[in-house]
Design goal:
The protein is of the alpha/beta class. It folds into 2 domains: 35 residues, no CATH class; 245 residues, NAD(P)-binding Rossmann-like Domain (Rossmann fold), CATH 3.40.50.720. Helix content is 47%, strand content 12%. It has 11 helices and 7 strands. The chain has a 7-stranded parallel sheet, with helices on both faces. α8 links the parallel β5 and β6. It binds nicotinamide-adenine-dinucleotide (NAD).
Length: 291
């Protein structure tokens, strides 16, 4: 049962949820369901092989979208696609290096070929690398900038050209783009730039009915951060994991860290008509770490 059918079943009292069915029926009007539905829409998600991108793709598919999955990691893409298909959705796997403009353009062509139109494009692919400013090399700057900044820029450009009926572009910034931290200057710089690219693109593409927004996640438990407590042999250093999660949780007034779901739900809001009057904004699912 996809997300929309599930909501309807709950509203009809058939999902065995134990909810007050009369009340749910009143609340889950057709307008409310369709405001969060992506049924009949084609959505591209980059970085879809892992973490936030994978969860966003699965969530968009649950909301009814045909998803087109871009990433460097073909095996990871196949695993995401298998989850989408198992949930009754449709997924197209399109291996893509987002730092390469021609590959990003090809991803847009593949999406339009798969769905006949393009409605949603989420630029999630990203990398992180630490270095002290005094030690940074051109390679450090290139490696991060090419994926995070160029990759997002080419994604916005390709989506802006391919969205013929309006649409929603969602970029991924970071709480790190607002909170200075030692050794993260290059990553943080790209994420701050993505927030401003989002505003520039919203101004430029709005007249074509294309909304451009970003999420700026706080610390989210994905393979990107799991590397902090994974030993070179692949085993998990449980003490390091517990310490890191405790440290990051303590920075949030909510006393916890995020899961990929928390980011995917925010992205679904930005993808769907529920946010139809929202553009040029950075939504910060960060547990209040930056306000
Ligand atoms: N996890 C966090 O705490 C956190 C916080 C703030 C922002 N973010 C951002 O969220 C996004 C997703 O991160 P995640 O935590 O899911 O990380 P992740 O490492 O789990 O996933 C990143 C994905 O990007 C893909 N990728 C890397 N380079 C690529 C390239 N050149 N072309 C195509 N794909 C490429 C990787 O293969 C991987 O599948 C990133 O932009 C990251 O900066 C993450």
């Amino acid at each position: 049962m996809d997300m929309i059918s599930g909501l309807r079943a709950a509203a009809a009292g058939t999902a065995g949820t134990g909810v007050d069915t009369a009340r749910s029926r009143a609340l889950l009007s057709d307008d409310l369901v369709s405001a969060f539905s992506l049924r009949g829409r084609t959505a591209v998600v980059t970085g879809a092989a892992s973490g936030i991108g994978r969860q966003a793709a699965i969530t968009f598919a649950h909301a009814g979208a045909d998803v087109v999955l871009g990433d460097l990691d073909r095996d990871g893409l196949e695993a995401t696609a298998a989850e989408v298909v198992a949930a009754g959705g449709t997924a197209t796997v399109a291996p893509t290096d987002v730092s390469d403009r021609s590959q990003v353009n090809a991803l847009a062509v593949a999406a339009v070929r798969a769905g006949g139109r393009l409605d949603v494009w989420a630029n999630v692919a990203g990398v992180i690398r630490t270095c002290r400013i005094v030690d940074a090399t051109p390679e450090d700057l290139d490696a991060v900038t090419r994926v995070n900044l160029y990759g997002t820029y080419w994604g916005v450009a390709a989506a802006g050209r391919a969205m013929k009926h309006g649409g929603s572009i969602i970029n991924v910034s970071s709480a790190g783009g607002e909170m200075p931290a030692p050794t993260l200057s290059v990553y943080a710089m790209t994420k701050a730039a993505i927030a401003h690219l989002t505003r520039c693109a919203a101004a430029e593409l709005g007249p074509a009915g294309i909304r451009v927004n970003a999420v700026a996640p706080g610390f989210t438990d994905t393979p990107m951060v799991q590397r902090l407590w994974t030993r070179p042999d692949g085993s998990v250093d449980e003490d390091a994991r517990a310490q890191m999660l405790a440290l990051r949780s303590a920075q949030s007034p909510l006393g916890t860290t995020a899961t990929a779901d928390d980011q995917a739900w925010a992205m679904l809001y930005l993808a769907a008509d529920a946010s139809r009057f929202v553009t040029g904004q950075v939504l910060r699912p960060n547990g209040g770490v930056v306000m």
